[in-house]
């Protein structure tokens, strides 16, 4: 997964990285994403573990421990930068939408 491909993250990718601002294992990631989004964003086990593997290969996350066969991950500096870039991009989308939609209410 080249850096170019990560200019825009899927919702699942974004929430996985957001969750990994703290150390977490796979099942914990699924639970935290469910909690943060009130169940709106679902991440299946296959999708999660496929993304974790890809993120690890690209040095976006790193395994920091293993407890009871659970691998615990966290973001690398590269991963944090990707997350911050995506957060900035999403804020700009909302700002652009606000400019148009809130402006149209005045008309």
UniProtKB/TrEMBL annotation:
Ranges of residues in domain Transcription regulator PadR N-terminal: 16-82
Sorted alphabetically, which PANTHER family does this protein's record hold? PADR-FAMILY TRANSCRIPTIONAL REGULATOR
Annotated transmembrane regions? none
Annotated protein name in UniProt: Helix-turn-helix transcriptional regulator
Could you tell me which Pfam families the record lists for this protein? Answer: PadR (PF03551)
Q: Give the domain of life.
A: Bacteria
């Amino acid at each position: 997964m080249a850096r170019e491909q990560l200019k825009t993250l899927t919702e699942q990718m974004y929430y996985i990285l957001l969750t990994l601002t703290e150390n977490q294992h796979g099942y914990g990631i699924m639970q935290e994403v469910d909690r943060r989004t009130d169940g709106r964003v679902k991440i299946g086990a296959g999708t999660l573990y496929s993304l974790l593997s890809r993120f690890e290969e690209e040095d976006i996350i790193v395994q920091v421990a293993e407890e009871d066969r659970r691998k615990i991950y966290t973001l690398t500096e590269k991963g944090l930068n990707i997350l911050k870039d995506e957060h900035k991009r999403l804020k700009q989308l909302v700002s652009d939408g606000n400019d148009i939609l809130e402006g149209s209410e005045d008309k």
